[in-house]
Amino acid sequence: MKYTIIALLIITLTACSGSDGETPGSKPELGTSPEITATISSYTITGTDTHTPPNPAPIDANISSGNFIIEWNANDAVGNVGQTKLYLSADDTLTTASDVEFFSSLCGIFNDCDENGDAALGCTFTTANLLSCSTDPAIDITTFLTGLPMQAYIILEACKNPWLPADCVNQAAFVEFR
Question: Which of 26, 84, 137, 138 has its CA 20 to 30 A from that of 127?
Answer without folding.
Answer: 84
